[in-house]
Amino acid sequence: KYCGEELILKILPILDNLSLAEKNLRDAGVSQIKTQLQDFLKNQGVEEIKSVGEKFDPNFHEVIEEVETEGKSGIIIEEVKKGYKLNGKVIRPAKVKVNK
Question: Could you say which residues of the chain have pLDDT below 50?
């Protein structure tokens, strides 16, 4: 169930870089490769951790900054790095900014 965890953790930075390239290049080829990689990971039991707009949960999120804005405190206002679960187990917490 978790035997591929180490390999998946090595693949996630590649997905991060594809997401960054997709934002900066607007290239259909990059988007297609990213989608294929996301589909592969999903078939392996990997799912993204929801962050923005959610209440901070130390089981899924890692706060890297607290920002004073209007609104309820403890709510995630920005995701700096996506977090992932493998078959329900957190393998990389999301790095987030939280409303103070």
Answer: none
